[in-house]
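Today's session is about reading a structure prediction critically. Students often jump straight to the picture, but the first step is always the sequence itself: look for stretches that repeat, for charged clusters, for runs of hydrophobic residues. Only then move on to the predicted structure, which in these notes is written as discrete structure tokens rather than atom positions. Here is the chain we will use throughout the hour.
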Amino acid sequence: MIQNVAVAGSVNGGEFTGGIVGFNKQGLIENATATGSVNGLGRTGGLVGLNRGKIKNAKATGSVNGTYSIGGLVGTNEGDLFGQTVATSIQDSFAAG
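Below is the predicted structure for this chain, in token form.
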């Protein structure tokens, strides 16, 4: 669980690159803010690169650059993990930049 955090600055990476987390595996990210540019290859997001968990009341501002599966808030949002249904959700969140 990640709660009540603010991260500022640029992030550079490869796969699974995010402003706060590269891979959220069934966790909760709540009341989180990421500001600054995020540069990666694939599954790159302003807040999370690959999300398989929950995101609530979060925001990301800044540019996001990559090759594929790129998003202002989340690069890839998945709901299936090895044949199991995983409840993924994004609530009260936004991205700008």
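Discussion point for the tutorial: The two ends are 26 Å apart (CA to CA).
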